Amino acid sequence: MTEVTNKEIIDALTEKFGGQITGVNEPYGLLTLETTKDAIIEVLKFLKENSIANFNFLTDITAVHYPEKKHGIAVVYHLHSMVKRIRVRVKVFIDEHHPTIPTATVIWNAANWMERETYDFFGVKFEGHPDLRRILNMDELGVHPMLKQYPLEDPNRVDKKDEYFGR
Amino acid sequence: MNHNQPVYTDNDPQNELVTLNLGPTHPATHGVFQNVIQLDGERIVSGVSTIGYIHRAFEKIAEHRPFYQITPLTDRLNYCSSPINNMGWHMTVEKLLNIQMPKRVDYLRVIIMELSRIADHIICNTIIAQDTGATTTFLYLFQFREHIYEIFEEICGARLTTNIGRIGGFERDFNDIAFSKINKFLKEFPVALKEFESLLNRNRIFIDRTAGVARVSAEQGLDYGWTGPLLRSTGVDYDVRVSEPYASYQDFDFEVPVGTSGDIYDRYLVRNEEMWQSLRLIEQGMEKLKNEPAGIFHADVPEFYLPAKEEVYNNMEALIYHFKIVMGEIDAPKAEVYHAVEGGNGELGFYLINDGGRTPYRLHFRRPSFINYQMFAPMSKGMLLSDAIINMSSMNIIAGELDA
């Protein structure tokens, strides 16, 4: 088994995609990078098929909502190379008012339910998904509950107000 | 009569497909989820899986709770092996906070996690046997789950949803009764497991019902995101304990059993062999504990580790830390962390984003049951209904983990 470093992966990606790879970071050693929604499928394909890293396994797809940001929804992909024992996290920030992104089901069948879950919780529309329906919540729910504008608790409850704790 | 002609006409009801609702609550579904299947005779033509019946909004609730209060949520993911979920969550937070564990805590964790793995595999394998009609094996091995629960009860007072760990270690040390119960288990369980294997491994009916049924190739398994015993049965040698060791698994000597054909029989064999390996790990853990000073059951991190109640009542510092921890005042760095453990069903991952607030900004569970199960409907096509039932038991779908 030949080891591969985060730097080699980044070098290969920037050589191929140039400025479309941004925000490179290594929190707790896990290579994290950002790309655009136009490039995401090509980036994922490259990561899967390129022999440098061979990220053949899709571990997870999910999203994060940052209401204060311009592109407020981050779709996060965790890929894994079981051969090289290395992981990578790819993020795409998309507009929360028009949350669309191409589907990764063209690369892995595993993406099917992960994307349905992300659609259910965040309203992200995966273009080209074969069966984009809600998966865990009921069809009539009407909202995408993991968005930050839907707080869980009754906001009138005062026992947990931050101001009472000097925050 | 011409035997080459079908005995029915186009309008004959025998020529129509039958729609069958398997579940939401059905003894064969092992939980609350539904499969709407179309049958041509006994053969499945197509199927649609519906899940979410017990979705409890774990991730949303987690966004509103300090770290400690998330532990009970993780207990209810895979409730057949809740200590693994528990420890996985605590290790994620420890990774975020850069806490190093004393070796003794790591060994205790390995012992507990491997006991849970055995409990989980006992359920799955005995249920496969039960679904092929072998009720004796089911009842026989199930009493050892009870023994494992008794060990849990001795350590933390609870049996099913254990809440056994803390950030930085355990809530209390294992007492002598717990250790003697573990030793008793180590002595008695191999005898029963051997007997269980001799009842099934070469059993003609069992082999006929499982070998070559629901065969999955390594490529298919990887494509559908399978992990754990399911993936290993296809021949892929992937185990989080080996590829990214946590809790000192690198100090232990054990093997990762893999199958060859990815059918139900191989999944059964892989789980059985894993139980033997778990026994090896527990034995080694007990041996290693002898070289560690007794009484250490948590790291020395008072600002994160929830102190014992008697400390809180008698010690001012402990009271302050208790208050700060309970109110979620832990000073955690702004960061994101992904940590995976090898759960009973595969890679159980925790993706935690912390923004320095009282609660996680975002917490996502990578639940192996959820990802493994999406292959059930596509792989059932062309299968006999009775085979699909055994296939479902062999996938070990736990509804709590599936729906979260």
From TrEMBL, chain A:
EC numbers on record: 7.1.1.-
GO function term, MF aspect, one: NADH dehydrogenase (quinone) (non-electrogenic) activity
SUPFAM superfamilies xref list: Nqo5-like (SSF143243)
Record-linked Pfam families: Complex1_30kDa
InterPro entries linked: NADH_DH_suC (IPR010218), NADH_quin_OxRdtase_su_C/D-like (IPR037232), NADH_UbQ_OxRdtase_30kDa_su (IPR001268), NADH_UbQ_OxRdtase_CS (IPR020396)
Reaction(s) catalysed by this chain's protein: a quinone + NADH + 5 H(+)(in) = a quinol + NAD(+) + 4 H(+)(out)
Chief location category: membrane
GO cellular component, one term: plasma membrane
UniProt-annotated location(s): Cell membrane
Topology term for the membrane: Peripheral membrane protein
Principal EC category: translocase
The keyword Cell membrane belongs to this UniProt entry's keyword annotation: yes
Domain of life of the native organism: Bacteria
Entry keyword set: Cell membrane, Membrane, NAD, Quinone, Translocase, Transport
Residue ranges of domain NADH:ubiquinone oxidoreductase 30kDa subunit in the record: 34-154
General function of this protein: NDH-1 shuttles electrons from NADH, via FMN and iron-sulfur (Fe-S) centers, to quinones in the respiratory chain. The immediate electron acceptor for the enzyme in this species is believed to be a menaquinone. Couples the redox reaction to proton translocation (for every two electrons transferred, four hydrogen ions are translocated across the cytoplasmic membrane), and thus conserves the redox energy in a proton gradient.
Assigned protein family: Belongs to the complex I 30 kDa subunit family.
Assembly mode: NDH-1 is composed of 14 different subunits. Subunits NuoB, C, D, E, F, and G constitute the peripheral sector of the complex.
Protein name, as recorded: NADH-quinone oxidoreductase subunit C
UniProtKB/TrEMBL annotation, chain B:
Domain NADH-quinone oxidoreductase subunit D: 131-403
InterPro entries reported in the protein's UniProt record: NADH_Q_OxRdtase_suD (IPR001135), NADH_UbQ_OxRdtase_49kDa_CS (IPR014029), NDH1_su_D/H (IPR022885), NiFe-Hase_large (IPR029014)
GO cellular component: plasma membrane
MF GO annotations: NAD binding; NADH dehydrogenase (quinone) (non-electrogenic) activity; quinone binding
SUPFAM superfamilies: HydB/Nqo4-like
Membrane-topology annotation of the record: Peripheral membrane protein
Entry EC number(s): 7.1.1.-
Reactions the enzyme catalyzes: a quinone + NADH + 5 H(+)(in) = a quinol + NAD(+) + 4 H(+)(out)
Class in the EC hierarchy, top level: translocase
Pfam annotation, one family: Complex1_49kDa
Cell location: Cell membrane
NCBIfam families on file: PRK06075.1 (NF004739)
Subunit structure: NDH-1 is composed of 14 different subunits. Subunits NuoB, C, D, E, F, and G constitute the peripheral sector of the complex.
Function statement: NDH-1 shuttles electrons from NADH, via FMN and iron-sulfur (Fe-S) centers, to quinones in the respiratory chain. The immediate electron acceptor for the enzyme in this species is believed to be ubiquinone. Couples the redox reaction to proton translocation (for every two electrons transferred, four hydrogen ions are translocated across the cytoplasmic membrane), and thus conserves the redox energy in a proton gradient.
Family label: Belongs to the complex I 49 kDa subunit family.
The protein's name: NADH-quinone oxidoreductase subunit D
Organism in which the protein naturally occurs: Pedobacter steynii
Gene name per UniProt: nuoD
